[in-house]
Every structure is written in C-alpha cells, then in structure tokens.
Design a protein that fits this description.
alpha/beta; eight-stranded mixed sheet; two-stranded antiparallel sheet; 10 strands; His_Pase_clade-2
C-alpha cells in the first residue's frame, strides 16, 4: 500500500516533466567511393556490374535512412519521391568510374516515382514520365585547376591533384627511412609474386614502389578472374601482406603530420563539407528549397587524407588503410531542440555526427559512429566542429593556390597575379589562409618558386616514367573493419 501511494504521489511530477525532444536530422553530407571496377593496369578503367550493384545498394540504403517518407531518421523537409533539385548537391570528378557510380547511386536514392510523378494538364489529361517516372538528378562534373579528369586511370596519387607542393611532399616519402627500409625488406616478397604478375609487371617493377598497383592488379583478379597464373602463391597470408603494404604505401603518400599540404585532398574536402553543412544550418528550417543533402563521389586518397587531418585514426587504427569499393562516410547535422516554424535554427542547438562504413553499406553492414579530432564524444557541437575543421580546411581557390605554391592559370587570377599594380604587395603575401605551411611571399618570388617547382615535378615524373614505366602510387581504400579479401572549388580527384 505504501508503494502504491508513492507511485500516486510521483505520477503528477512525471506527467509534468517535459519529454526529451526527438533528434531531428537537418541535413547530411555523404562522401562515397566508387564501386568495383576493372584494374588500373589496363586502360580504360570502367565500373563493373558488381560495382554498379554495390553503389545502387548504397543509394537504396540511404534512401531508407534519410529520404523515404517512412524513414526513421528522415532529413527534415526533404522530398521523398520526386527529387527537388535545390535540396540536393551531387558532384563527382570528371571520371567515368566515379560519374557512373554517382548516377547509379542516385537510382537507388530516388527510384522511379511511379504514380507520384504523374501530372494532370490543364485539359484534364494525365501524363506519365518515361521509365516509370524515372527521377532525373544531375551529377555535376568537377574539373578545375586543382584536378584533372580520369582519376581512375591515374596510377599516381597526386597525378591529378594539380597541387605542386603536394606533389613534392608526396615524393618526399620516397626518401623517407620507412619507405627505403620497407623497399629493401620486401624485395623477396614482391619478387616471389612474379609468376602471378609477370604478364603486367617486369622484374624491376615488382617492388614495394608499386605496392598499390600490384595489389590492385591481384585484388581485381581474385574478384573477376576464374583462372590466375600460379594462383597457389596467393595464400591468405600473401593477400594480407599485399593489402597491408599497399595501405602503408598509400598512407605515406596521402598524409604526413609534419607536411599538411600532402593531404591537400582531405583539406579541400573538409572545406567543402564545412561550407555545405553551414549552408544547410543557415537556411530556414521550413524552407522547401534549401539544400539538405550533399553527395560527393571521390577516390580513396581523399578518404585517407581526410582521416589523417581529422585524426580519425585516434578512434580506430583501421582508418590508416585503404577503404574498400563503395565505402562511404556521412556527416549528419542534427538537433535535439524544437525546430522553429520560421527562420533558421540557432547554431548553438546543432551538432554533427560522423559515421563510416567500410565496403557496401546495408542492414548487415551499417555505418558506425566514430569520434573525430581525437575526441571521446561522437556528437560534436556545431561550434566545436566548425573550429576543428577550420584548422585544416581549404575552402577557396586563393587559399588552395597559396598552400600549393601555384601561381599561374586560375591561381594567377585568384592571387591577383594576372596584371595590375606590380608594386603592391601580392595577395599571397597579405592574405591569410587556414592551411598551415603556406606563408606569404612576394609575387615575383611566388612566380619563380612556382615555376621551379613545376619544372622539378615534370622532370622528376619523366625520369620515373622512363625508369619504372609509370608511377603506381594511388589507390583506393579500406578502413574500419577491413575486408582483406577483397574529391568544388578545387576538387578532390585523387585516384
């Protein structure tokens, strides 16, 4: 009886207590790797049927997570059936594999709308779009001074970055003690694989220097080739060694804590993420046309560079590796506050969550939440997130040009070097940048340095091509939960 009386006394207090507001997803940024593709050793590289299936499954998963009318974590205000193009931003480098992956992903995100796409005309007749109400969402191709097309045909990590200082920094890896020691210690391992790869790689090319392209060649073969020469050599231990050495090689090229410019792909990506989420946060919550979902397709190098800069490796050592095909990460912009009926949400009420999935996402392989920036808390207040990203993000062309040491072409305009009063201080010397290591210099010095760097890079690359038959330094990855069997402004297009 006493317990019953206590419950009756507490009941009014429980009813009076306000219920915690359910979390609202205001927007999201998805960065996605392409699906399975053919080997880089033979051109052109193309998306396979398996790769299309992987990215379609991913698009379907995110439809069920963010877009469908019955999605449990539906992005507030996003159109569920027929896409409102102003709500979406979808970009990909000028590359067949990445462009095709983005297009197939969108087929899963917004499948044919059926009855929802039927329109009634003024005369009362009903019209149905072709292909069952196919939803046309454009994939905006990106190609600027910071990138070149065909990144999936490139065998070298910085081959398409256009960033002179990043090229020099990545090449510094080949003079590092880690690289030289590994090159020597793995000589017998790679030489022992010649019976498997000698149709494509010569004896001199079968070394750690080509760790990625050798891995890529073997990896693709194990997926698609029913017969492989000397297949008995490809034991689980050997395949694991190939993967591990490729991870080591590509990480060394993609990120170095003492040379931030090496991770230019991740810095640019960070700037794009910050700008997109900020645009969503500043838009009226009730707006039916505000950007809600940003999707970008890019290659594995951008994943690795961003993971290094954002210190994702503090959350899991798996982030050091190359992400698998169709891997992706998401940054969700969320709030637990009651959203206003008009105007924008107070930024103090918003937070960001980072999720990552290695390989094809699905109910059996859902994205997992990880903390960033070496923090322990996975849900980051917006102000903290913006400050942390701002430490390394590059969000405009001028900052990119200064960090890269580029001073011609687009950079001449961005830095004010395309004419005018040459007696004044140059933009490179007077403007600040969020990227470290890009200190100011006079316009004349910047031009000389840029020219010398470019000449050195060209001569260095030419020598390497003559000696090796093509640099083989870029690649795609696998992180958190690796499966061993197995880059807008300046754009992120590293292969």
């Amino acid at each position: 009886m006493e317990l019953t009386a206590l419950r009756l006394l507490l009941l009014p207090l429980l009813l009076a207590a306000p219920l915690a507001a359910a979390e609202t997803v205001l927007g999201a940024y998805i960065f996605h790797r392409h699906g399975d593709r053919t080997t880089k050793s033979y051109k052109p590289v193309s998306l396979t049927a398996l790769g299309a299936e992987q990215v379609f499954a991913s698009g379907t998963y995110y439809r069920n997570r963010y877009v469908a009318s019955d999605a449990q974590t539906r992005i507030q205000g996003i159109a569920p059936d027929v896409a409102v193009l102003s709500q979406l931003s979808v970009t990909s480098p000028v590359d067949d594999v990445l462009q095709h992956s983005a297009q197939v992903f969108l087929q899963g995100l917004y499948p044919p709308a059926g009855a929802a796409s039927v329109q009634t005309l003024a005369n009362g007749s009903r019209t149905e779009p072709p292909l069952g109400g196919y939803v046309y969402v454009p994939v905006n191709a990106v190609s600027t001074a910071a990138s070149s097309g065909g990144s999936e045909n490139s065998e070298w990590l910085q081959g398409g970055s256009g960033c002179a200082n990043a090229v020099v920094s990545s090449n510094n890896y080949f003079a590092s003690r880690e690289y030289l020691d590994t090159l020597a210690s793995t000589k017998d391992f790679y030489h022992g694989l010649l019976p498997v790869v000698n149709s494509t790689f010569s004896d001199s090319q079968a070394t750690f220097k080509n760790a990625y392209t050798i891995f890529d060649y073997v990896h693709v073969s194990t997926i698609h080739n029913q017969t492989i020469p000397a297949a008995d050599l490809l034991t689980n231990e050997t395949l694991h060694q190939l993967q591990t050495r490729a991870d080591q090689h590509e990480w060394g090229l993609a990120y170095n804590s003492s040379e931030p410019v090496r991770a230019i792909a991740g810095a640019v990506l960070a700037g794009q993420i910050l700008q997109a989420l900020n645009d969503t946060l500043r838009a009226p919550v009730a707006s039916a046309t505000a950007q809600r979902l940003t999707i970008q397709f890019g290659a594995y190098a951008a994943f690795m560079s961003f993971f290094g800069l954002a210190n994702a490796t503090a959350a899991s050592p798996d982030f050091y590796g190359i992400v698998d095909y169709a891997s992706n990460f998401v940054l969700e912009l969320v709030t637990n506050a009651t959203t206003p009926s008009s105007g924008a949400l107070d930024p103090a009420d918003a937070s960001v969550r980072f999720l990552f999935v290695n390989g094809t996402v699905g109910d059996n392989n859902p994205p997992r939440v990880y903390p960033l920036f070496g923090r322990s808390d996975a849900l980051i207040p917006w102000s903290d997130f913006a400050a942390e990203m701002g430490r390394f993000a590059i969000a405009d062309t001028a900052s990119w040009c200064r960090a890269c040491g580029n001073s011609t072409g687009v950079c001449a305009t961005a830095l004010g070097n395309d004419g005018g009063d040459s007696g004044n201080s140059s933009a490179a010397g007077t403007s600040s940048t969020s990227h470290k290591g890009s200190g100011g210099m006079s316009r004349a010095v910047a031009g000389v340095v840029g020219a010398m760097v470019t000449l050195a890079v060209v001569l260095g690359l030419e020598a390497l091509v003559l000696a090796v038959g093509g640099l083989r330094l870029v690649k795609k990855g696998n992180v958190a939960g690796k499966q061993a069997s197995s880059p807008v402004g300046p754009s992120v297009t590293q292969a």
